[in-house]
Specification:
alpha+beta, extended, two-stranded antiparallel sheet, 14% strand, His-Me finger endonuclease fold, 2 domains
Length: 143
């Protein structure tokens, strides 16, 4: 058992997030998540700057960007043109997040720029349109 530094409640150790090296944070998961959310809302520019690279386009790191550009045979100008044509937003969810290159696994054709979540989501469905339609039907029926 451990006591949260914020809410002062005694909770199971599983209720505390890890901070690496086997250590637990002093705040329970609930208080920690609330603190993180408050920080993001209070400092949106600081959060955005953490993702922003020098040219103004969002990407997690220059190293990752350069690796991606090489992998898909893109130049920085081509990537920036795609980014600008999409208004800096994910083609699926319209969120302004770091964008990755989405491509067809069969033809290797580049389809556009997506956020990580949308790109992984397509990958989980193996780019199968019928499977995605069934997932949509499932979600609609579940309402």
């Amino acid at each position: 058992m451990k006591t949260c530094r914020d809410c002062k409640e005694e909770k199971e150790l599983s209720e505390f997030p890890s901070q690496g090296g086997g250590k637990l944070r002093p705040y329970c998961k609930l208080c920690y998540n609330l603190k993180q959310k408050e920080n993001r809302e209070a400092n949106p520019e600081q959060i955005r700057k953490a993702w922003k690279r020098a040219s103004g386009k969002y990407y997690t790191t220059d190293r990752r960007r350069n690796k991606t550009l090489r992998a898909y045979g893109l130049t920085e100008e081509t990537y920036n043109a795609m980014y600008d044509s999409q208004g800096g937003l994910c083609k699926i969810c319209d969120r302004e997040l770091p964008l990755v290159v989405d491509h067809c696994h069969e033809s290797s054709v580049i389809r556009g720029l997506l956020c990580d979540r949308c790109n992984v989501g397509l990958g989980c469905f193996q780019d199968d349109v019928d499977r995605m339609k069934r997932a949509i039907e499932y979600l609609v029926d579940a309402r």
